[in-house]
UniProtKB/TrEMBL annotation:
One of its GO terms (molecular function) is carbonate dehydratase activity. It comes from Holothuria leucospilota. Reversible hydration of carbon dioxide. This is Carbonic anhydrase. It catalyses: hydrogencarbonate + H(+) = CO2 + H2O.
């Protein structure tokens, strides 16, 4: 995830997203994300039911949580074990990955990181919308194709290279799965700060539907520069919940380094409303796994 981190859009403010194309040509492409999903115009795809989506997530015992100045990014560090084979040491790593669903047979997509997008108010925050309704937060689980590519950098922008699961988030009960991370946000209040979290975490706890039945999928792009396309998006129909106090921890974060001068006003320097506006669907189709 190093390249994604270096090319973060922290120096390109959200208000200037219309100018992203001047610096990153793909941001002006025909297959950009996020989009509004008009549920009545989606098309049911029987293949999405027959070729079931599988999320093969394992417990991650160490993660890094970083304030990039534009989002909160969690990078998962999976366990590695040295196994002796024929007198030689071989490193074997447990990975979290997904397959099936809209993907080509035999392709595995490894989970690399998780990012968040949220609003200052409850009426906005998610990047995607459903029937023009926004949620207060959206969570992205970023995967890359380890079957066809050697690195995330190589996979970016290539057909079948990246896949992102988008989870809508609503205010409700506390999300105990995210508690270990939200409790650390105070430690990364300023841009560039990070902290390691050594608590076992399984991404399965974030899934609103363990059966993985109802989702939409379409071809889009990264929602931040370089906005490269050829990203397969999977958006689950039902949201997960976080408590009001949990989302407030995100809203207290800063988009600048400590001591850095910021403008005047109540919102100056606050890391809020870090979502890209929805982009035209153009000639793309949004497929549904349900009727």
């Amino acid at each position: 995830m190093d390249r994604m981190r270096r090319e973060n859009y922290g120096d390109f403010v959200i208000e200037g997203t219309t100018e992203w194309g001047l610096h990153f040509p793909e941001a002006s492409g025909e297959s950009q994300s996020p989009i509004n999903i008009n549920s009545r115009e989606t098309k049911f795809d029987q293949k999405l039911k027959d070729n079931k989506l599988e999320l093969c997530y394992v417990v991650c015992r160490e993660s890094e949580i970083l304030n990039t100045g534009a989002t909160v990014q969690i990078t998962f560090k999976h366990d590695s074990n040295n196994l002796a084979k024929g007198g030689h040491e071989k490193e074997e790593t447990s990975k979290s990955y997904m397959k099936g669903g809209p993907f080509m047979a035999g392709d595995d997509y490894e989970l690399a990181a998780c990012t968040f997008h949220w609003g200052k108010e409850e009426e906005r925050g998610s990047e995607h919308t459903v029937n023009f309704k926004a949620y207060p937060m959206e969570l992205h689980l970023i995967h890359w194709n380890t079957t066809q590519f050697s690195t995330v950098e190589e996979a970016m922008g290539k057909p079948g290279g990246l896949a992102i699961i988008a989870l809508f988030v609503q205010i409700g009960r506390e999300n105990t799965g995210l508690r270990a991370f939200t409790e650390c946000l105070e430690s990364i209040q300023y841009k560039g700060r990070s902290v390691n979290v050594s608590i076992p975490f399984n991404t399965n706890c974030l899934l609103p539907d363990p059966m993985l039945r109802d989702f939409w999928t379409y071809q889009g792009s990264l929602t931040s520069p370089p906005c490269c396309e050829n990203v397969t998006w999977i958006l689950f129909r039902y949201p997960l919940t976080v408590s009001n106090s949990q989302i407030e921890e995100f809203r207290r974060l800063k988009n600048h380094m400590k001591g850095e001068q910021v403008g005047a006003g109540d919102e100056a320097g606050c890391l809020v409303d870090n979502f890209r506006p929805t982009q035209p669907l153009n000639k793309r189709t949004v497929w549904a796994s349900f009727r």
